[in-house]
Amino acid sequence: MTTRSLQGWVARQAARAPDATAVVLDRERTSYEALERRARRLAGVLREVGCRPGDRVCLFVPKSPQAIAAMLASLKAGAAYVPIDLGSPAARVARIVATCQPRCIVATEEAAPLLRAVLAMGAAPPSARIGWLCGQGRHDAAFGPEDIELAPEATGDGSAGGDAAHILFTSGSTGQPKGVVITHDNVLAFLRFAAAHFGIGPDDRLSGHSPLCFDLSTFDIYGALTAGAELHLVPPRLNLLAPRLAEFIRDSALTQWFSVPSALAYLTRFDAVAEGDFPSLRRVLWCGDVLPTPILRHLMRCLPHARFTNLYGPTEATIASSYHTVEACPASDCEPIPIGRACDGERLLVLDDDLRSSPPGAVGHLYIAGAGLSPGYYGDPDKTRAAFVEITAADGSPDRIYRTGDLARRDEAGLIWFVGRADTQIKGRGYRIELGEIEAAASAVDAVGECAVVALASEGFEGATICLAYAPRPGVELAPTQLRTDLSRLLPPYMLPSRWAKLPDLPKNAHGKIDRTALRERFSDHAPSTP
């Protein structure tokens, strides 16, 4: 990959095979030539209304070929795009817009109520230009109170290399969203690794499951489009319809599936995957959370023709920093899966409290260094300095590392094993307890469809109150008393939860991950059963 711009790689594919399908959504198929033409025309409009290199473009556009073209157009105009989650509350979106101070805002009619609410809060700078995308797949844009004629097609290269490609906003501990800056070089570094290890080519059909504001979608989009493959966008309406989601994978003849583990758990929980299903599927990848081993075993038995790979990495390190392909079906439901080895160009460091390397087998803090590391948080140098630490490497040279907040250990063979979040290791009943271990044990109970463990602060002798929320498999009755009995066979008494919540489904955030904050609030506000 010698070209140092994402839009440049997509343009190459458009020149190589203009009639090939680039993006699919429902019955709409967009060719590479059409995608490139729309992106170039919209880039011209953005430049015409004043968008300059280094500016930001906020995209109030739902997951669609329109959105992909708008992303590429922003890059061609030299700007960084900021995808907005249209399901977020207006107050949160207003904070994002106020932080990134966009030169332009591109929106569709579907997003009009949200955008109007955000503008009413005074979040956008007075100089921001607002453009509305037309329907039926067209990408002409009207900016301001009057339409303007389309500018000539953009001919410059736009942003590239170390320039920001996009800014992805993640949750902040203070309630203020953090804007993670991701450069072209960051993304291309991961794509070089993916091209070598997954061999994505023009014959591939990749899933586009994640929301466009989530970093996993970066691999979906550019992993497909830089390789000349087809990107099949998963309509959000299918996320809670397991049989329809399985039907989508079959009908699309996907060769690669990539998602957070909860999507795979949902397919398994509702028995939507049959033995020998998805004959075209060659790769199943997951990232963003721990995939319970019972779910992995079930899928590997049903899909022996596919390879299964665990990817690990925070948004701040661009898509993923480590990988582990599971070569054989785990022998038991309690067998953990490592996060593996560093991707090419990345380094994973397990360090103690003094930033010294932890010996094999010892649990330490997990740090990441390398080509995927973000420049930092947009407009927030203090948060950047706190999370991205400058140290002196073994050879005496300066090194920049990112503190993930995760605990991990390295085994004698060099594999990295995720242990849990540093903030989920609690002191309970006089013992140090890792909540992830309790969660793994609960996941191994056959009747459990999905589960999560959280802890609440307690003034009592136990130190912290362990709370377990779970959803039984469909058609299965599982009372908290029975689950407690099952867990007592797997865990010592001091690790057994003291509060329980049986739910039809666990709450999820916009990225499809289990919303543990919502669960903590539920346990704080309610009095769940205590068997």
What do these coordinates show?
With 531 residues, the protein is of the alpha/beta class. The protein has four domains: 32-183, Rossmann fold, CATH 3.40.50.980; 197-342, Rossmann fold, CATH 3.40.50.12780; 346-420, Luciferase, domain 3; 429-525, GMP Synthetase, Chain A, domain 3. Helix content is 28%, strand content 27%. The protein contains 14 helices and 27 strands. The strands form seven sheets. It has a five-stranded mixed sheet, covered by helices on one side. Strands 12-13-14-15-16 form a five-stranded mixed sheet, covered by helices on one side. Strands 17, 18, 20, 21 and 22 form a five-stranded antiparallel sheet that branches. Strand 20 (388-392) and strand 21 form a beta hairpin. Helix 1 (6-16) crosses helix 2 (32-48). The chain is globular, with a radius of gyration of 23 Å. The protein starts with 5 loop residues before the first helix and ends in a 6-residue tail after the last helix. Residues 136-140 and 144-155 have low confidence and may be disordered.
Provide keyphrases for this structure:
531 residues; alpha/beta; Rossmann fold; Luciferase, domain 3; 4 domains; 5-stranded mixed β-sheet; 27 strands; 28% helix; 27% strand; globular
Helical amount: 25-40%
Instruction: Report the total helices.
Output: 14
Question: Would you identify the regions where 5 or more consecutive residues have pLDDT less than 50?
Answer: 136-140, 144-155
Instruction: Please give the alpha-carbon distance between the first and last residues.
Output: 58 Å
Under the CATH scheme, which architecture of the largest domain would be assigned? 3-Layer(aba) Sandwich
Total domain modules: 4
Q: Biggest β-sheet, characterized? A: 5 strands, mixed
CATH top level class name of the largest domain: Alpha Beta
Instruction: Tally the beta strands.
Output: 27
Percent of residues in beta strands: 25-35%
Q: Any idea of the CATH topology of the largest domain?
A: Rossmann fold
